[in-house]
What we know:
By secondary structure, the protein is an alpha+beta fold. It has helices at 2-7, 15-20, 55-63, 73-83, 94-108, 112-131, 140-157, 163-179, 182-187, 192-202, 204-219, 232-242, 248-278, 281-291, 312-326, 358-361, 378-381, 404-421, and strands at 39-43, 48-52, 333-336, 341-342, 347-348, 353-356, 422-426, 433-434, 442-443, 448-452. The chain has a single domain, classed as CATH 1.10.630.10. Strand 4 (341-342) and strand 5 (347-348) form a beta hairpin. It comes from Xanthobacter agilis. Its cofactor is heme.
Amino acid sequence: MIRAFAGTFGRLPFAAKIAGRFLGDPMLLLGGKPLVGWQTVFTLPFRRMALVSDNATAEAVMLDRAGKFPKSTVLHALLKPLIGEGVFGQPGGDTVKETRRVLARALAAIPPAHIAEVTRTLTQEYMDGWLARKGAPAPVGVDLSRLTVDVVSVCTMGRRFTAEESQRFTDLFSIYHQRAKATLLLLAHADEATRARIIHELGLEEIGAEMRALMRERFLSAPLGRDGDEAIFSRALADAGYAAPGHDERALDEIAVMLLAGHETTASTLSWLCHVLAGDSALQDAAAQAVAAAPGTQVADDKSARFAGATGEDVLSALTQEALRLYPPIGFFLRENKEEVALENRTLPKDNFIVVAPRVLHRHRAYWKKPDTFWPERWLETPELPARTAFIPFGMGARVCPGAQFANIEMAEITRLLLTRLRFGLTAGAEPLPLGNLTSRPEPDIVLTVTPRAAPASSAQRS
């Protein structure tokens, strides 16, 4: 019965579109068992899926030294309308490795001080816009997406969208997220015709085409690599041969990867952090007080201080690390096994799905104290992780996110400014949940009240 139902996705008109309305975040379908167990195998209509949480198996999958666990073709199908043949959606191979090296070298060439300066300047623009609302609800989640797109594009390509383009780009990306139902492709038959029909039914091609048109107009209207010294990524693409005649679409593919992967994970994490802080005024005030102190100054070491003995830099790191733990931007890494995998009590035949899920690992009962609680102190009190794969918000191994350092600098600067200059408050409305189709972005978007924060007395900070 289930197989027959899944098989209709690729045959009946609008079947995928209708089913997509009822199928949401695939991680919500897993229940509580994976949070206490090490391996769970699910029987899908046409394939099996093994969720692995034990360190040994998860590490083998993520490091994948022998190429046995390529990225699933499901991800390629979902992302292709947007990033084409961009590196993020590819299963592997020599071309992918070389492109990743180009991307990693370009990001490493951006001076950290430049990232910090650009981030501070652009963040101030958006904060001014929120404060102009005089306490009325502000679209914090949407604007954090726009802000992080701006930061990434200025730092890598030396230019940014106009305000109107930025708004349209982030609106389209939100719709793309809502429609990109990984669950449908997991349940459906894997033949190309079925997947193509599902993608068409979900309307991803139309949205992707408009987003690509916006990126093409803004970032490929001039010859690639001639935007000046700040266009580090554009120049790297040109040096790698993407500026040659006929390569515009491939260049656009990698620009799309840089913009989308570079901004979405940061924006999602910061949106969740702002929401948590808005709902806990004591935490928000304690963090603001710690972060406002002079660099290297410790919070007074007394029993009433929440972050006693920690510096503002320590607190900033703890806040963002805890947001990444509870709300990892990539909720699950979906792979396919090209060889039979020996599990605890069974085997997983080749050509099935195998999943390593940060959403599960980061809350696993065997790895974490207070696993469901936002408790940044854990990063100040427990310097060592219980297992290598217990905390992998940026992945690990050869496929680790090359922009992790960029993201950490950006998150620290944005969080510092938001905490020291603003006060957030919750608004009425539905409680956001991780969307989970592609990333863990909040759904609905975070909307908060924003008011100016009075400067704290400096003497309260010093030990």
